[in-house]
């Protein structure tokens, strides 16, 4: 098949790589598991015999996504802090210009300098790969596809998200002093109750990790409604 031919060649473009990825990510959830992962690995093993290293499947200057996923962000907390840095307007998504800044910073950390036209190309590729609803913006859950599955705590919260009305009611309940934001202690109480009500999806033994990851979205320890909604509300404004 065409995907197999592409994988066995070393000099493929980033666009071709993402086309291959999408071929194996058949359910479009942003990561590979089960049979998808097995098939992908089998093709990579064949490619390694010719390329020598996994990273060599892409040209050197186009390894930035591999670098990002394997080296740059090693935990959900790192990811959330990075999201907060680039979602500068607290809109709940990263727009094209914000994404370009995000990628430029990432590439500089990898000691890679590129011109603006190449940066624009990378931005378009990133949107093509992760913009699952095709709105030209990347939401938190879409960007979280960059995280290794075992580090993506957002997958666990996906099944416990509330409708907008229910979320607003919960926020008001746990914002006990009515100051318009939730602090660490109030979040602790909220998460404990969520874990008790959703034992199949959330592990109360991971409470400290959940809290640390979510508080990474806060502004000086203040977790505002729009920020918490990224995690717990199924409806975004």
UniProtKB/TrEMBL annotation:
Question: What Gene Ontology terms for biological process does this UniProt record contain?
Answer: regulation of long-term synaptic potentiation; regulation of presynaptic cytosolic calcium ion concentration
Instruction: State whether keyword Iron applies.
Output: no
Q: Name one GO cellular component term.
A: dendritic spine
Q: Which UniProt keywords apply?
A: Acetylation, Calcium, Metal-binding, Repeat, Vitamin D
Keyword Hydrolase set for record: no
Q: What GO molecular function terms would the record report?
A: calcium ion binding; vitamin D binding
Quote the InterPro entries the UniProt record gives.
Answer: Calbindin_Ca-bind, EF-hand-dom_pair, EF_Hand_1_Ca_BS, EF_hand_dom
PROSITE patterns given for it?
EF_HAND_1, EF_HAND_2
All residue ranges annotated as the EF-hand domain in the record: 12-47, 74-109, 118-153, 162-197
Belongs to which family? Belongs to the calbindin family.
Q: What does the record give as the function of this protein?
A: Buffers cytosolic calcium. May stimulate a membrane Ca(2+)-ATPase and a 3',5'-cyclic nucleotide phosphodiesterase.
What is the name of the protein in this document? Calbindin
**Organism, per UniProt?**
Chrysemys picta bellii
Give the organism's phylogenetic lineage. Eukaryota, Metazoa, Chordata, Craniata, Vertebrata
Gene name, per UniProt, is CALB1
């Amino acid at each position: 098949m065409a995907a197999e031919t592409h994988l066995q060649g070393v000099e493929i473009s980033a666009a071709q790589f993402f086309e291959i990825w999408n071929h194996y990510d058949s359910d479009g959830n942003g990561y590979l598991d089960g049979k998808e992962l097995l098939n992908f690995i089998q093709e990579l093993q064949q490619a390694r015999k010719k390329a020598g290293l996994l990273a060599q499947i892409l040209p050197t200057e186009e390894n930035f996504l591999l670098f990002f996923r394997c080296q740059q962000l090693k935990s959900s907390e790192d990811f959330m802090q990075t999201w907060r840095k680039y979602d500068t307007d607290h809109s709940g998504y990263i727009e094209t210009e914000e994404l370009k800044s995000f990628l430029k910073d990432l590439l500089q950390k990898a000691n890679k300098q590129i011109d603006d036209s190449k940066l624009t190309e990378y931005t378009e590729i990133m949107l093509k790969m992760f913009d699952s609803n095709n709105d030209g913006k990347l939401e938190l859950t879409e960007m979280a596809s960059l995280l290794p599955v075992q580090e993506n705590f957002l997958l666990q919260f996906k099944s416990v998200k509330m409708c907008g009305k229910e979320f607003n009611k919960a926020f008001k309940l746990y914002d006990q002093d009515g100051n318009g934001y939730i602090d660490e202690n109030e979040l602790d109480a909220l998460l404990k109750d969520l874990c008790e009500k959703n034992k199949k999806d959330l592990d109360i033994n991971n409470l400290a990790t959940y809290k640390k990851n979510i508080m990474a979205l806060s502004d000086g320890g203040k977790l505002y409604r729009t920020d918490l909604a990224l995690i717990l509300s199924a409806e975004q404004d």
